[in-house]
Each structure stands twice: as C-alpha cells, then as structure tokens.
Amino acid sequence: MLERIAGTGPLPEHLRDGVVAIGNFDGVHRGHQAVLETALAEARQRNRPALVLTFNPHPRKFFRPRSPLFVLTPPEMKAQLLNNLGFSAVVEQAFTDDLSEKSAEAFITSILRDNLGICHAVTGFNFHFGKDREGGPEFLTNAGRRHGFGVTLVDAFRDEAAHIISSSGIRQLLAQGHVAEAAGQLGYRFTVRETVINGQKLGRTLGFPTANMRLPESVELREGVYAVRFRRADGSLHDGVASFGRRPTVDDNGAPLLETFVFDFSDSLYGEDCSVSFFSYLRGEEKFNGLDELVAQMRRDEQEARALLAGMRPLSALDASVSF
Ligand SMILES: Cc1cc2nc3c(=O)[nH]c(=O)nc-3n(C[C@H](O)[C@H](O)[C@H](O)COP(=O)(O)O)c2cc1C
Ligand SMILES: Nc1ncnc2c1ncn2[C@@H]1O[C@H](COP(=O)(O)OP(=O)(O)O)[C@@H](O)[C@H]1O
C-alpha cells in the first residue's frame, strides 16, 4: 500500500535513497504516466523505492487563490492512482509562503537532499521550481552532479494524433462533456470520489433511487446524463446511469448535484465514500412536463447506459484497476 507523507521533515529510513518523480501531476494523465513509468522502471533497476513528490494545494491555486482551478485529481484520488501504478509513497509537500520563497538551490538542498535523501530524480521536460521558476531541467541536472543524485528528463508525451496531452486540455474536454475523449488522454476514465448524502427521497418513489453527491464547486464537468461505473467503499463495482445537474424538472435552483442510479442494487449508501467513473455522455439535462415524462426518459437512459457499458473494455492496466 502507498504511504501518504506530509513532507514536513526527513523521510523514514525505508523510503530514503529512493527514485523520485517530481511534479504536480494533476490528472495523472498519459503524459504524467510517461514520467511516472520512467521513475518506476529506474527504481526497479536500482532496487530502490519509487516515490512521487507533489504539491498541495496545486501551486496555481496558491498563486491565484481567487481564480478557481478545476483540480482533476484531488490528493486522495491522486494517491489512489499512484498506488495502483505501483509507487511506495507520495510526498504531499505543502505549498506554502515558505516554499514559494525558496530559491531553486534551497529547494534542492532542503527538500530533495535533506528531507527526501533521493538517489534519482525524474521530471518532465518542462518542470520548473524555486522562486520565480528559477530552476529548470538544466539546473536540476547540474545540481544532481553537485549533490550526487541522478536525473532523468522525460520528453513531452504525444497522443496518437501527435497532440501534446495536457491537464488544461483534459479540463476543457470534460467541460464540454467529452468524457470518452478525456479518458483517451487520461488513460483511464475520469473518476470522482465523494460521500453519498441525503436528497429529497423522491427518487425511490419514481423507481429510480439515486445516490447523491456534491462535487467541489471548481469541478467543471458538463451538466447532463452519463453512463457510469459506481464503486462502493468495499471495492465492489456496479454499472449505473448518472445525472449531473440542477434538476430543472423538480427544483430549478441550487448547485449541480451528481445523482447515480445504480443498476440491480437496493442497499443503503448514505454516508459511504463511493466513486463514480464517467464512460459516455448520453444527453443534456432537460426540463420535462412532469414526473411521468422524466421517468420515461430515465428508462431510456438506463437502457442506453446498460448497452454501452456492456461493450466497454479497459483502456490500460490503470483503467482496469480504477473502473473494471
Ligand atoms: C438517469 C437520470 C436522468 C435524469 N435526467 C434529468 C433531467 O433531464 N432533468 C431533470 O430535471 N432531472 C433529471 N434527473 C434527476 C431527477 O430529477 C432526480 O433524480 C429525482 O428528482 C430524484 O431526486 P432525489 O434523489 O433527490 O430523490 C435525472 C436523474 C437520473 C438518475
Ligand atoms: N439502486 C440504487 N441506486 C442508488 N441508490 C440506491 C439504490 N438502491 C438503494 N439506494 C439507496 O437509496 C438512496 C437514494 O434514494 P432516493 O429516494 O433517491 O433518496 P435521496 O433523495 O436521499 O437520494 C441512496 O443514497 C442509497 O442509499
């Protein structure tokens, strides 16, 4: 199991002298995975632990606190993905005033050398660090020579159409409801994890009980109806159909809610931490003339989602570990 470490002091002995992938890795997309797989391979070869050094909050949120940032993988989700990829630990370095003021050299001596005691660093071609982004790949490589650790830089990863994959591109796809395309770039299905809360208890009277979740306000997923896979806290997986929206038919206001009708299931889910993986966008949210019309459409949504999900295959080993 992956260890989550706050990064406030020296690492425990068993994690020192490790191979460390450094970056924000928001989304843990296929470009990030190229960096992460390089670190994993290097660690296997040296027979040393594989670690990730990442930052929380996302540095962009630190520097621009008032402009909302759609974080694709909150710390918990990122940790789960890194665990599934095979890392031993993730250092969730607090991004504070103090860290933002550190020079590139101070970042290397106090964090990489003293706290983490790394033997090898792996980063992407464009990783910058230290006050005013002073340190880049070349700085890191030279510092490694001086301080006695190796450095591997991983080139930009391109998808099949030679587009560079980026977290901001994936955020835009999700905002347009293109969850299948986003999955192609993430290498797994976009997945959110939240606690199931109480709703108006109307769903069960319609024959469509729905597990309700509030997503963070910054999540910019297109409102609409999706074919999804639902994972309970005990790890069991269920197919379902979910609506993310403001429910114009029953109440016209309020923040959007994610509501999942879980197929062939009848237990209570209240208070449980569950995850929802998005496979296909089915349609936009509509205002119906009454509940009968809504229920008729929900039946069609269910049939469409069942058929789509039956044909889905994992995109990768990571995808298989998340939603299969
Ligand atoms: C598959 C599905 C599709 C839905 N589509 C719509 C819709 O197009 N318009 C709408 O107002 N509500 C839609 N809803 C939300 C329902 O209005 C909501 O689930 C129902 O009112 C039950 O509310 P409750 O969970 O608070 O009891 C949909 C829900 C599901 C599960
Ligand atoms: N097939 C199912 N799909 C989703 N939730 C279910 C299902 N069967 C039982 N439940 C339970 O019922 C609740 C949803 O019922 P519903 O009447 O829609 O109430 P609420 O308005 O509180 O969401 C879920 O939170 C869960 O605890």
TrEMBL record:
Catalytic reaction list: FMN + ATP + H(+) = FAD + diphosphate; riboflavin + ATP = FMN + ADP + H(+)
Pathway listed: Cofactor biosynthesis; FAD biosynthesis; FAD from FMN: step 1/1; Cofactor biosynthesis; FMN biosynthesis; FMN from riboflavin (ATP route): step 1/1
InterPro entries reported for this sequence: FAD_synthase, Riboflavin_kinase, Riboflavin_kinase_bac, Riboflavin_kinase_bac/euk, Riboflavin_kinase_dom_sf, Rossmann-like_a/b/a_fold
A GO molecular-function descriptor: FMN adenylyltransferase activity
E.C. number(s) listed in UniProt: 2.7.1.26, 2.7.7.2
Residues annotated as domain Riboflavin kinase: 185-310
Top-level taxon in the UniProt lineage: Bacteria
Key word Phosphoprotein present: no
Keywords attached to this entry: ATP-binding, FAD, Flavoprotein, FMN, Kinase, Multifunctional enzyme, Nucleotide-binding, Nucleotidyltransferase, Transferase
Family: Belongs to the ribF family.
Function comment: Catalyzes the phosphorylation of riboflavin to FMN followed by the adenylation of FMN to FAD.
Protein name: Riboflavin biosynthesis protein
The organism of origin for this protein: Aquamicrobium segne
